[in-house]
Amino acid sequence: MTARRKKQSEPTLTSLHLPFDLVEEILCRISVKHLIRLCCVCKSWNSLIFRDSKFAKKHLRKSTTSHDRHHLILTPTYPYFSPQFFLLHSPISSILNSTSTSIVKQFSYTIREILIERAYGNRASTCDGIVCFKIDNSSAVLCNPFIRKFKILPPLKYPSGEISYTLVHDRFINNYKIIAVNCTRSSKIEVNVHILGTNHWRRIRDFPDPNLILVSRLGTFVNDSLNWLVYAAAPFIVSLDLEKESYEKLALPVSYQKLALPVFPNISSFMILGTLKGCLSLIFDKREKSCDVWIMKEYGNEKSWTKLLTVPHMKECDFYCYIRALYISEDEDEKVLMECTKMGINSLVVYDSINNTFMIPEFQNYISTKMTPEIYVESLISPL
Question: Is the full-model pTM beyond 0.90?
Answer without folding.
Answer: no
